[in-house]
Structures are given as structure tokens and as C-alpha cells.
Amino acid sequence: TLADVRQRAQFPVLCANLFYNGTDICFAQEYTILEENGIRIGVIGVIGEDAFLNTIMAKNRLGIQVKEPAPIVQKLVDKLKPEVDMIVVLTHQNKTAPMQTDKEADPEVQRGYDEDYALAGAVKGIDMIIGGHSDHGLWTPVQHPKTGTYIGLTFGQGKYLGYARFKKNRSTGEITLLNGRLLPVDAAALKPDPVVAQLIQKARSDSPHLADTIAYLDRQASRKYYRESNIGNLLADILRSSADADIGMISSGSIRFDLNPGPVTVEQLYNVFPFTDVLATVEVGGRDLKELFEYSYALNYGLIQCSGIEATYNSKKPIGQRLVTLIIGDKLVVDENTYKLATISYAATGGDGLVMLKDKKSELFQRSVAEVFVQYFRKHKEIRVPALGRQRDLAREHKK
Predict the structure, then answer these.
(1) Fewer CB within 10 Å of terminal CB in the chain, N or C?
(2) 150-152 and 128-130: which strand pairing?
């Protein structure tokens, strides 16, 4: 799909380290040169290996392979340096972003920029890296002490505009950062772009059912990335009941919107889960189920949100030793038993690193997950948001 639609893009689509399998043929454009008022800026795009392999569905990666970006970027920097005044690298790497509305105010879930920092230290000649994927934020750019490369990130989701002003010494070629900061974006105070607004209005006009109020929510349903969330519990409950399963599960990163109390529209539910996944069930043994929860408590992709379980864990224990108890129904999970888990097709096929589910007996339903949520809300009309307490962190309770 990307190979098709990028031909109509009125901007360069950059990614220097994606290749057709077994070839040196780049899938996208490696770089572009922007020129303004006589200043030429070389712009290179790259994607992280983990971001490509673990956050994109396997079927959407067929025929394409990712390569380690540093040597590729160094080669392009050396090529571009004589032709431009400045080199910027746009990245989509680092740890996966926390899907949490208040993430800039919650240091616990700020995911860092380790891969950007490593790239800045490994490649000579980059003036600035502008990072993505982790939705980390830097209120002012950071400079790598070894190479002098500056790094900037904006928390993602269009909440801030990153601003950086540089000075170049024409004699030495040295680039100096004069100032850099994040500018809050107040959407309510800004005039909508007319072209984008027209596209949105056309979509709503073509699908008037999006505006239908289908249910009422009794209280706020909000996301948390490293903890159990009430909206996660609600969605997991819906998956479990819709598939008549023992357990319902959805990853924190799949929940993209909070819901306010009061009327809920179809469009709002599509915003909560804006993906094409179908409902899936997986037959999971008790031992693999425990492995799944241990993986979840490592917090690589946030805490999985569940229904039908009661679990205790200790976030201060070493990774792989954090699960304390796991109960389904009213019984402890038994290694030799098999349990039916309802989830989204992305997770059922090993997405987000859930390799323990990948080769298990599974069933994909002909029902999109988004429609499953819509149908549930439409049927029940008065929706009560579940309480917390299904997954208890003993370290946090002890601290209290």
C-alpha cells in the first residue's frame, strides 16, 4: 500500500535503511536536500530495527528488510557533506511510544532516546537528529559530547512544535545551536488548515454514522502505559465476552484515545482503536501464559490490559522474576492446563514481541475489533467503566 500511495505524495518519503529482501535496492528515497534563502540542508530518514520488526504486522513487512542504520547514515553524510550547509537525520526509532495522554507529566513512562543517542555517537558529521517513535520529549536539545550532534524530540502526537535556531561559521563550517525549545500547540486557538479540514469533513459526510451517539459512559476512561487502566479493563472485558474466552487481552499501545464520561459516538470508538485488526483467539498453555505476563511486567511495550484474571507482581524484582500469582476464575493457573485467550490479530500473530503466542493454535474471526467495540457499546447503551485491581504491583503497595 505504501509503495502505491507514496507515488502521489507531494513530499519526499525518506528511509535510507529499508531494502527489498536480498538486494541493495532501497525501498524509499534515502535523502533529500532542502534549500531556503541560499541555505542547503541535507535530510536523511531512517527507521529503527526494533521499530520495524516488532511494531509492524509481519504481513505488512513481506519483501522488505531493515538494516542497521549507523553505517548507512555515515556513508550518506560523507556523500552529502560537500554539497550542503547542514545535515539533519529524521529517525523513527528508540523504544515504542507510551500511549498515555499525560505522558510528558509522568516521568515513569518517558521512554528515552537511547537509539538516537547511540546513532549520534556512532556517526560523524550529523548536525541534528530529530527523533520519533518513543514520543519522548526534550525541552531543549541535547548535544552528544563525542560528535557534537544535537538531538531533539517533541513528545509526539502533535502536542508540541520543536524549534531550533542554528548559526553556521562560513569559514570553519562549524554549526552552533543558538536556542531550541518546545512550543505548545493549542489546537483550539489555531485556524484549521483548509485542505485538511475539508478532507475530514468529507470523511464525516461520506460516513454520517460516525456521529451517532451509541452509548453513555458513567465515568472517565483513561489510558496508563505502565499500569492497569480502566479503559484497558473495559476493552479487554469486551474482547473476552465477544469471543467467549477465559481471558481478554489488549496491549496498552493499541489504545489510542481516552473517553470522557457521557455520550460516546462511533467516531470516538474508532479513535480509541483506529486499526484494521480482527478479533482473534489463541489456545495458550499455563506455562506460556505465565511467560506472557512475565514479558508484560518487563514493560517493553507497556503493561498488557486484561480481563478474567487476577495477578500480583513485583516491579522491583529482576525481569523474568516479577510475576507472583496468576489466577483465572478462582483458581491458580496450572502449567499443564490450556486457556482460551481473546485478543487482537496483531498480538495473536506475535506483534509487540509476543512470540509466545505466535505459533499457537488460533482462530481469526471475520469481525473487526473496532466493530466489536462499537457493537458492544450499541447493545449495552449504559456502559460502566470497570474498577482497577486486577493486576496489583506489590512493590507499589508496599511503598504506600
Answers:
(1) C
(2) parallel
Distance between CA atoms of residues 258 and 189, nearest Å: 22
**Spatial distance between the Cα atoms of 336 and 350, rounded to a whole number of angstroms:** 22
Q: Count the neighbouring beta carbons within 10 Å of the beta carbon of residue 284.
A: 26
Q: Strand 262-265's sheet: what is its strand order?
A: 262-265, 213-217, 382-383
Distance CA 290, CA 253 (A): 20
Question: What is the Cα–Cα distance from 254 to 212, expressed in whole angstroms?
Answer: 23
Single-letter amino acid code for the residue at 107: P
**8-state DSSP, 317:** S
pLDDT digits (tens, 9 = 90+) for 116-149: 999 999 999 999 999 999 999 999 999 999 999 9
Least Cα distance to 223 among 135, 162, 315 occurs for: 135
Question: What distance in Å separates the CA atoms of residue 40 and residue 88, rounded to the nearest whole number?
Answer: 11
Dist. CA 213–CA 184, nearest whole Å: 31
Rg, Å, the chain Cα set: 23
Three cell numbers, residue 313: 507482581
Share of the chain residues as helix, strand and coil, in percent rounded to the nearest 5: 35, 30, 35
Q: Which residue has the cell 485467550?
A: 341
Q: Are 245 and 340 in contact (CB under 8 A)?
A: yes
CA 366 to centroid of chain Cα atoms: 25
pTM of the predicted protein model: 0.89
pLDDT over 70 for what percent of the chain?
Answer: 100
One-letter identity of residue 5: V
Please state, in angstroms and as integers, the Cα–Cα distance from residue 294 to each residue in 282, 319, 325, 326, 350, following that order. Answer: 18, 7, 11, 11, 15
C-alpha cell at 69: 542504520
- State the DSSP code for 300: B
Select from 149, 133, 125, 52 the least CA-distant residue to 98. Answer: 133
**Cell numbers 542547503 label which residue?**
40
Task: Report the alpha-carbon distance of residue 369 to residue 289 in Å, rounded.
Answer: 22
Structure-derived torsion over alpha carbons of residues 113, 117, 122, 123, reported in degrees to the nearest 10? 100
